[in-house]
Amino acid sequence: MQTTARSSASAPSSPLPSSTSPPPPQRVAFLSLHRRDLLLLPAALSLQLAPSAAAPAPAAARGLFRMPPAALANRYFLVRAGESVYEGQGLLRTNPVAKTSVDNGLSPVGLRQTARAALELQRLGACEDDCWIWPSITQRAYQAAEIIAAANGINRSRIVPEYSFLDARGLGAFEGKSLDTLPEVYASDNISPDMKPPPISDGTPNESVADVFVRVTQLMSILETQYSGETVVIVSPDSDNLSILQAGLIGLDLLRHSSLFFKPGEVRPVDPSSIPEYKQPASAVFKCTNPPSCK
């Protein structure tokens, strides 16, 4: 018994079981990446590593066009197409349904007026280094664009037809009346730019000066966004598109746009020096006492 006890005492004691089990080995989790994610990874890394650039001021962003503009990215020439057959008959025709009709095309007098306009653009050097010609699709305006292109050696591929923003101003109930009634329209314009001609049921729009102002501002926004450092010749079938556009550009009160009336076949360059440096408030409030020089 003693021998057994001694041998038991001399035997190495077995290690006691630990009260806590060892932690399981850690597993590495792999992200599930698609091939598209791998392709986009270099670009994402370059964006993270690149120094952050300050965002441009909203007012300086291209396409946010306001009247009068802070500056113009292009050079512009405003051209009214020559007399139409309807105008030669002494009639007002502004219904867009008839804008591509033969009678809305150039009369013999209008052809001569447009030829002189084309030569005037040549004299002014408008298309010396090439140019873009933006006419309304109204028959006389597009015909005028083709004459201008031919006289100035411009490829017809640089004629860009405008389908709505350069439509002749819709004169409502004055449709079909004598050209001699046009001063009545301008008398209303002098009261408020929001006054519309009386409506008519044949579908002819009755547009106020403010309505046309929205259209031509949208046109300029497109041109200033699409081009830079180019020359653009804008060809309108009537005067109001151009007089309202020029009034907006130079900051003239829109009530007085008719003082900038364009005769058939008249050419007028947009002079950047006539755009006022003072641009607040907007053009509808800015006063000009000596149009078109309003600096």
UniProtKB/TrEMBL annotation:
Point to the regions of Low complexity compositional bias. Answer: 1-19
The name on file for this protein is Phosphoglycerate mutase family protein
Q: Which SUPFAM superfamilies match?
A: Phosphoglycerate mutase-like
- Which residue ranges does the record annotate as region Disordered? 1-26
Q: Which InterPro entries does the protein's record reference? A: His_Pase_superF_clade-1, His_PPase_superfam, TAT_signal
Record's Pfam families? His_Phos_1
